[in-house]
Amino acid sequence: MSAKLSIVATPIGNLEDMTLRALRVLKEADVVACEDTRNTKKLLMHYEIKTPLIAFHSNGGEKGYERMFALLEEGKSVALVSDAGTPGVSDPGQELVSRVREMFGDRVTIEAIPGASALAAALSICGLRASQFVFYGFLPLKKGRETLFNEIAAADRASIFFESTHRIIKTLDTLVQKLAPTRRIGIYRELTKMHEESIVGTAEEVRARLLADPQKQRGEFVVVVE
After folding, report:
1. Of 62, 140, 200, 222, which residue is least crowded by CB atoms under 10 Å?
2. Domains held by the chain: number
3. Nearest 5°: phi and psi at 36?
4. pTM as predicted
5. What percent of the chain has pLDDT above 90?
């Protein structure tokens, strides 16, 4: 069988969001490459999938890529998953796909196994004007961050990015400073999970709600700037 790299979307929170096709591909693969073997092991155990796991993450360096290339060179079928959602969106999967295409060309089949995506989930429920948008993934921690916020403030399209529990208040502080007072934003916390929450309003209104309840500052966030 020819080598295959399957980019498999997994749930961003709710295990019921696993697709039938994804389950079949994970069962049939020779190996599943994942960010954290502990997280993916729980997912596979839940669905009684016994495919071997290997780690592939941003801290693996060249050795991680070389291991993946070796498996494909052997003609293996490799399923790539992230800890949550669709690989290749703000994780090293994007670089892997690019390098596999460069190195192997048509000798390796690369297929998308679509499914859960925090970006698509937030867009579907935001209720904001976001028919055209720019997606930034995770914003840089320092260098270039201020420039991007200026770009977002000046944009005539919606802007969407991910944010963590540790930086959400600081991000809202900046949006209050940069955005026009009436411009709306939405934050979408813990999508598909038990404590899923959507908060929409001006940057000042959203910031006030989070400051009034520290519990609302916990979790992973998708931020949409209208």
Report:
1. 62
2. 2
3. -135, 115
4. 0.88
5. 86
